[in-house]
Amino acid sequence: MVELINEKGLRIDGRGVDELRPLRIEVGVLKNADGSSYIEMGKNKIVAAVYGPKEVHPKHLALPDRSVLRCRYHMAPFSVDVRKPPQPSRREIEISKVIREALEPALILEEYPRTAINIYLEVLQADGGSRCAGITASAVALADAGISMRDMVVACAAGKISGQVVIDLDDTEDKEGDADLPIAIMPNLNQVTLFQLDGIMAPEEFEKAFNMAVSACHQIYEVQREALIDKYFGKGEAGEE
Amino acid sequence: MSAVKRSMVVERLRKDQMVELLSKEKRLDNRGLLDLRNIVIETGVIERASGSAKVQVGNTQVIAGVKIETGEPFPDTPDKGLLVVNAEVLPLASAYAEPGPPDEDAIELARVVDRGVRESKMIDLSKLILIPGRKVHAVFVDVNVLNVDGNLFDATSYATVASIATAKMPKLFVDQNGQIKRTEEIIPLPIKSIPVSVTLARIGDVLLVDPTSEEEAVMDARITLVFDEEDNVCAGQKGQPGTLNFDQVKLAANIAKVKAREVRKIILGGITKDAKG
Amino acid sequence: MLERHSVERLKKTIPGDRLAVIEEFSPSEGTYIDRDAIRATKVGVKNYDLKKKEVKIEVLQKTRKMAMVGDSVIGQVEATQSNTANVRIYYINDKRSLGGFTGMLLLKSDNHHRRDRKKSIMLKSGDIIRARVTSYTNAIIHLSIDENENGVIYTTCSSCGGLIRRLNQVVECVDCGFVEDRKLAADFGRAHLK
Q1: Within an 8 Å CB–CB cutoff, is residue B4 touching chain C?
Q2: Is residue A162 in some structural domain?
Q3: Domains of chain B (ranges, CATH numbers)
């Protein structure tokens, strides 16, 4: 049994229970995409790209009153310890679906009838919480693409390890811990857009974990904002185009 | 990468304009015909991989990761380790790329890059044997194209070569019971050579190096040549339906040989940077 | 200094930011109404028009991907029916467009001053045309080539595929001499594609 929290209350990587891993977001990393971003969250390294609005293929899938949102979450073969075959696994297909459903409520798709908006996520290196990092990166890429959005979407997990509630689980904590609760929220509209739970928690632990995940999302949201402002207004001095 | 949805007529009109420009030895990005774009090579970018490299050639961006596993040798080469090079043009890389298994272009890309590594004897595959005929090291190189702006052959080759050259693995041994055990010792792959790929395009009567997507869209033919450190040519491929005349093939080989020396310095720079880190 | 910095920062907005309440302002570009609040839908700069009582976001995104009414587009005629043609759009306002959108062109002129009323072969499949977006009804891009600068900018002979030269309102094949109707753009044969 792995000891995930030591007697000082610190986790394996030295973090406190309510501390995020190092987080970095960059905007506009790919030239061809209409919008793009790159996120590092712990050891996660993920590129997100948005193409669209564009014409739907095949055409009969087009909707007369709104855009069709598509999402592909994919892991590079070298992103995990044992080489992963390139073709999408069932896990990747499910995650693609929940990510799409986590982002869709934030998008004003009615502005783009008969079109498609495609979101592509490539996990270059996977750590715990890659779906959350993927959602956070996608929202930034969508804003970079200029797709009309009701709000940003930001995601983070909370969970239970060694009997304690913590946020932002890494790979080891995810595998060895007792429970994992990834959520995504719209931070201004106070709505939950992704909710998954994997493991056992008492009701009061669940509520605590949920609250901690929400406040972690708000911290990450500030990093999203900084990244977008940096890209569009330049770093540091104000008034620079 | 695939040419779907491109208008042939639009490309033909643009080609006429480009041929006119090239006849004045000018390119759309103001490069000379034999000028390479800026090449940036970063190694050790993916900690979970045995070796990795991110390469930018102008706006073309690729990332390669090496995984070293154990496997059975091919029946016809029982005394050699395995090398598998796989390339994918991710749907995020261009408006033309689609999700799905690699198309013929991506497979050609991977095979040409593989050939350069294999034929230059970059990795001494005979040193990758654990149990002759039964267990060998298997070196998987996966290359993901992140942004397409032409010359994927060279960018993919540089990333593949840089990731292999910087790959490290735990030293394995076979105990008296025939079990494979790992040691604490971390060793590099047995590297014998560094192959360097250079690609040229023919547009009209003009040969140019390191074509962009715009140039590739109108090129008549493409030719890739791979060189080892002694200027020996060790792999090559002509692509596209157009032809090259005899003189053009020889000229391309001469240009590529000189350019390969230039690129070799950049690759070696990218590889050694990792060693200290 | 700190004061000024935070004022500057407050003008910069990302989607979801609350801009005003609906009692005080009305929503304009780049905004939407969420119950009693007006919020931003884009990255940009907040702009309050105190006279009109409007709030909008000045958008900073690079290019527009969808053609809008009034835009000039260049595309290729993909198919012609009896009175419409489908046009695949490759350029919007002289900028390359990779969205893959198609527009619809009505093959009859609304311009009653035009003398040539033979509309049967104004263009054929494969032609490259310049057109203007006239409406976006039912999410279909409607195009028109009535204006002088609009029309066919590149075509080949529909009989032999040869090169074509202009003869007033018709074109003649340089190779086989076949003559046919085309609505040509003013700069036919001289258009430059980026």
Answers
A1: no
A2: yes
A3: 31-276 (3.30.230.70)
C193 and B17 within 8 Å at the Cβ level: the answer is yes
Tell me what the pLDDT averaged over chain C comes to. Answer: 83
> B13–C98: do the CB atoms touch at under 8 Å?
no
8 Å CB contact of A224 and C14: yes
CATH top class, domain C2-59: mainly beta
Q: Please name the chains neighbouring C, where neighbouring means 3+ C-beta pairs under 8 angstroms.
A: A, B
C79 in contact with chain B, both atoms CB, cutoff 8 A: no
Number of domains in chain A: 1
Q: What is the pLDDT of residues A23-72, one digit of tens each?
A: 999 999 999 999 999 999 999 999 999 999 998 988 899 998 999 999 99
| Chains in touch with A (≥3 Cβ pairs < 8 A) | B, C
- Mean pLDDT confidence for B243-266: 98
With CA atoms as reference, the chain C residue closest to B95 would be C98
- Residue A89 inside a domain? The answer is yes
> What string of H, E and C letters represents the secondary structure of chain B?
CCCCCCCHHHHHHHHHHHHHHHHCCCCCCCCCCCCCCCEEEEECCCCCCCEEEEEEECCEEEEEEEEEEEECCCCCCCCCCEEEEEEEECHHHCCCCCCCCCCHHHHHHHHHHHHHHHHCCCECHHHHEEECCCEEEEEEEEEEEEECCCCHHHHHHHHHHHHHHCCEEEEEEECCCCCEEEEEEEEECCECCCCEEEEEEEECCEEEECCCHHHHHHCCEEEEEEECCCCCEEEEEEECCCCCCHHHHHHHHHHHHHHHHHHHHHHHHHHHHHHHC
Q: Kindly report the pTM of this predicted structure.
A: 0.91
What range does the domain containing A105 cover? 23-233
The interface predicted TM-score (ipTM) is 0.92
